[in-house]
Structures are given as structure tokens and as C-alpha cells.
Specification:
Blueprint: H1 7-24, H2 31-44, H3 52-64, E1 67-71, H4 78-87, E2 89-90, E3 93-97, H5 104-108, E4 109-114, E5 119-124, E6 131-135, H6 142-145, H7 148-154, E7 156-159, E8 162-165, E9 171-176, H8 189-192, E10 195-200, H9 206-218, E11 232-233, H10 234-245, H11 251-266, E12 270-272, H12 276-292, H13 300-311, E13 316-317, H14 319-323, H15 328-338
């Protein structure tokens, strides 16, 4: 009896193979996005030694179109990193130094009487730019801090009944010092909630410290930002931000995010848990971390990586646990370890 190949079996095998290939192929082209971000890292690396985590979180916030609060002691490259990031992208940049005598009009702008036409004209303040660096945001009183509420959340300001929209992209990067509290004003929870990330910046290790000293010794430039090239246009950045929104998130991962947030509200060590805004922030940030890895889909690792920066400023440790030295990061770690990872 002769054996004959069954063409139907061969066709079915080919179909199954094609399905498997499609399953592992990227459905969204992330090659250009990842290459551009690597160029940004390379440009910043001309000046900054170490601090890879801070840079990566800043890039994730950039892709997420979210604001960032950077906290660290003086001299750990918070301000210069933000300035370098702004210089690698072809957008407007504005720096505002917060001081106790700073008024809201110094940030937003004010109406000035024009003698020629006998009318008031609105003179825009430094907030009207694309990248806003706010140095020592906790140096100004609540009245000045509250001027940022509308512009950070709605990307617009209302002055004399007229709405002025911010140009896109619009990103606020604020810094603060966690050690020196004399003459500072604590940021209210409502304002903290408007920051997508809170990034804690620590000291460099021994090898990095040596490299910093060596770079400074060998450098002949007065301006550290000199020689930094613009590698991304404003239009490219907006396209990347829209691309990140298309990244795939499976239903079980959305449930995983919800469980993390619910656990912060039910945790006995926390006085205040995270709000639904935190759920949306964690979803958005997870997509950005997936894009940084060149993937068009989110994994549980992306969510876990984003959780600390998204949640640490949105939860409040109970006074008893805080006196025991328990930090928000430690509680978040415990919550993540206690939830089953979806597979």
C-alpha cells in the first residue's frame, strides 16, 4: 500500500506556523521610537555618569506625557539632567526658580495696560513653554504652588475669563530637597497627585564618583550642556506619545493593576491609599516602560517597575509605621509580593 502526502495536513501546518509567527511579531513598529530614545540616552550620557534609573523614568514620563517630581539631596544632577533632556528635543524650554516671594503672576503672566490702545494685554509668563523645569518647588508658599494646579492637569490657564491652552508637548519637571526643610512649604496631596512619577535620586557608587571627578578634570567646557545635540523633533515626540497609547494591555494585566491599587486602600500600614487616577497613571506608565524595551505589549514586570514611581507620592504611611521607619517603597514592595502575578 502506497503512502500519499495529505495536502490538507500540509496547509493546516503552514497556517499554524504563520499564526505562531504572527503571535511573536511586533504588531506596532517600535524600532524608530527605541532608536531615538537610545540617542537621547547617549546625548545625556556625555555629561551624566550613572543615574540610569532617573533617566529611564524621565523618558517613560516623556512618552506618557506626564509630569515628574524629582527628589534628592543637592548635587546629584537633578537639574542638569532635566536641562539635558530638554536640549535633546527640539522644543521650548523654560526654567523657574521657586522662592518664598514668588507670586502666581510671576509664573502664569499678568495683564498689562497698553497706553497706545487703552486696553489691557496679557503678557505670558514662563509657564508658556514645552519643557518647564521648576527648581525647588517646595520653596514657594501654597498660593504660588496652587497656580500650577490647572496648568498641570488641564494643560491650560484661565486668566481674566480667557482660556489659554499650552502648546504640546507640555511637561513639568520639578525638583525638591528632602533634607533641608527650613523655609519650605510641603506640597499638598492634590498637587502631588498631578505628578505621574516621583523619582528618588540617590548618591552614585564609588566607580561612578571616580568617573564624575575624572570627567570634570578632563572637561574644558564651562557650559555642561554645550555639545548636546537635538535628536527628536516636537512632531516626532507627539507621534511617539500617540504610538505608546496603542500598546496592548491584556485584560488580566488590567485586573492586576486594579488589585495593586485596591490593596493600597486596604493596607493596614497606609493611612491613605491610591485613587483611581493612580490606576490610570500606572496603566499609562506601564505602556511607556514596554515601549522603552521595544515591545508593543505590557508585561507584569512593566507594571511592577512603574509601581514605585507612580505610587510612592500617592500613598501616606500611617504615623505609627512611619515612626518605626517603614517607608512607602517598602509597603509597595510588600503589596507587589502579596499579589499573584498573572501569566
Amino acid at each position: 500500500m502506497e503512502n500519499f502526502d495529505n495536502p490538507n495536513i500540509e496547509n493546516q501546518s503552514a497556517i499554524n506556523l504563520n499564526k505562531q509567527e504572527e503571535q511573536f511579531q511586533s504588531r506596532i513598529d517600535m524600532i524608530e521610537l527605541r532608536a531615538s530614545l537610545e540617542k537621547v540616552k547617549s546625548e545625556i550620557g556625555k555629561v551624566i555618569v550613572g543615574q540610569e534609573k532617573m533617566i529611564e523614568h524621565l523618558l517613560a514620563a516623556l512618552l506618557s506625557n506626564g509630569h515628574v517630581l524629582i527628589e534628592g539631596v543637592p548635587g546629584v544632577a537633578k537639574t542638569i539632567t532635566a536641562k539635558l533632556l530638554a536640549k535633546t528635543i527640539d522644543v521650548g524650554f523654560s526654567r523657574i526658580q521657586f522662592t518664598p516671594d514668588l507670586m502666581p503672576s510671576d509664573i502664569l503672566g499678568t495683564s498689562v495696560f497698553n497706553v497706545k490702545n487703552s486696553e489691557f494685554e496679557f503678557k505670558k509668563g514662563p509657564i508658556f513653554s514645552n519643557f518647564i523645569l521648576i527648581d525647588e518647588i517646595n520653596r514657594s508658599p501654597a498660593k504660588t504652588q496652587s497656580a500650577l494646579f490647572e496648568v498641570m492637569e488641564e494643560r491650560q490657564i484661565t486668566m481674566d475669563g480667557i482660556r489659554y491652552a499650552m502648546d504640546e508637548p507640555f511637561l513639568v519637571i520639578a525638583t525638591q530637597n528632602p533634607i533641608e526643610h527650613e523655609g519650605t512649604y510641603r506640597l499638598p496631596e492634590a498637587q502631588l497627585d498631578r505628578f505621574l512619577f516621583k523619582i528618588n535620586v540617590g548618591y552614585p557608587n564609588l566607580e561612578q564618583e571616580i568617573a564624575i571627578i575624572k570627567n570634570q578634570h578632563e572637561s574644558k567646557k564651562e557650559d555642561k550642556t554645550e555639545g548636546i545635540n537635538r535628536v527628536i523633533s516636537a512632531e516626532q515626540l507627539k507621534n511617539y506619545q500617540h504610538l505608546v497609547k496603542e500598546i496592548i494591555v491584556e485584560a488580566q494585566l488590567m485586573e492586576y493593576i486594579a488589585k495593586i491599587i485596591i490593596n493600597t486602600r486596604e493596607n493596614q500600614f497606609l493611612y491613605l491609599g491610591a485613587s483611581p487616577r493612580a490606576s490610570l497613571a500606572l496603566l499609562t506608565a506601564s505602556k511607556a516602560f514596554a515601549a522603552l524595551r521595544g515591545r508593543d505589549f505590557v508585561t507584569p514586570e512593566d507594571i511592577k517597575e512603574a509601581s514605585y514611581a507612580v505610587l510612592r507620592h500617592r500613598v501616606i504611611v500611617s504615623p505609627e509605621r512611619e515612626m518605626e521607619g517603614l517607608s512607602a517603597d517598602e509597603i509597595i514592595r510588600q503589596i507587589l509580593e502579596g499579589i499573584e502575578i498573572p501569566r
